[in-house]
């Protein structure tokens, strides 16, 4: 849980990228960048790993599709076998529509739940909402926020602030 944030505003995307790299070099592992557009190379600068949403969706989709296919097959062959017109009991083409739809639904639900879980949502309050320039975060500002969960982080934040000339505004939000 976040006890406070160090928030620094910079002029443009290049300054934000260099500040993110500097924060990573200083040992901050929980830094986040806020900008009005995507910045190429920011994920690498922050040390972010690949999102687990896609693998979770793939696994859930395949498991959901396999489960509904197996359920339909068991139901047709063992549960309620109906010999209609001499057709085989395990006629798999009849199972494809429900298999496809269930696989897609399972993947979508797993993706949504994984996204919420990895984003720590829903989170009704975050310290960044208390910042003076919070409105500029989603408008036109470039910000770097760093979690300050221990006392050493405060000293490193001040060191980061003093060492970087591109920082135009900074504050500690509790």
Automatic annotation (TrEMBL):
<dbReference type="InterPro" id="IPR021776">
    <property type="entry name" value="ActD"/>
</dbReference>
<feature type="transmembrane region" description="Helical">
    <location>
        <begin position="56"/>
        <end position="74"/>
    </location>
</feature>
<protein>
    <recommendedName>
        <fullName>DUF3341 domain-containing protein</fullName>
    </recommendedName>
</protein>
<keyword id="KW-0472">Membrane</keyword>
<feature type="transmembrane region" description="Helical">
    <location>
        <begin position="94"/>
        <end position="117"/>
    </location>
</feature>
<keyword id="KW-0812">Transmembrane</keyword>
<keyword id="KW-1133">Transmembrane helix</keyword>
<dbReference type="Pfam" id="PF11821">
    <property type="entry name" value="ActD"/>
</dbReference>
